[in-house]
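Q: My labmate handed me this sequence with no annotations at all. I'd like to see what the chain might look like in three dimensions before we decide whether it's worth expressing. Could you predict it?
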Amino acid sequence: MSYDNLSRGNRDAVKWGPLEIGDVVDVERLRSVLQHYRPIAVMHFSAYAYVGESVQKPLLYYRNNIGGSVALLQALVDCGPVPFVFSSSCATYGIPEAIPISENHPQRPISPYGFSKFAVEQMLGDLGTACQLPSVILRYFNAAGSDPENEIGEMHDPETHLIPLVLRAAQAGNPVNIFGTDYDTPDGTCIRDYVHVADIADAHVRALNYLLAGGKSCALNLANSQGYSVKEVIATAERVCNRAISVNVAARRPGDSPVLVGSALRALEVLGWRPRISKLENQIDDAWNWLRSR
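A: Here is what I predict for the chain of 294 residues:
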């Protein structure tokens, strides 16, 4: 069963089981749905996820990401705690002190989005103690790619993620924006760690099975442990698409860290998880095939 208000989701993305329409801040609706279905576990993905927007509209993020999580967790505790897998983010770390970033790195988020994820992580820790709610927190680095079988892909409106923006620019022949070329990185542009969505999905299944088998609550990075700059992503997309992509240089966006590259050693130790589609070319190729199939 999926639960969504479809304000930023897509009905077509629900491939298995029924869809229940409802808002994540509506605790009564959530309680009713949980009582009806009696799930054996819950996965929580319901968050606004635009860093720049969170800086401009922090209350929107606090209401949905934090308030919605409070409502969901309240309903879940009322109906009986079950294993809980939470979609968190590397944005909780803020400006890294060391690369690659491990789970022991201090969490000092620099955007309302990052803070909202950090706040929910704190809630889960407290509920684990108070209500014996078992949880796995998965801190994504940059999700990338699309379903290799082209059944589902990125469908954001507005689109803010680099790879789909670059591919849309390649398809339409329009320039793509680079937000800042004066970072302390080899080519001056931000460096990110890209993880294929199929690998992220695999990690969630593993996390669920781990908890159902009695595993202890923990937080894990989902990372490729390899960083690529904005310029490297554009150059790779040009090779994959066999098209030139022009660029516009714009000012830095607030809330962006210069480098975010993670260590996934703990996910390997706990879940036996490692990225299978690790090459940036393959990630971009899957996303390009999805875009062209629409």
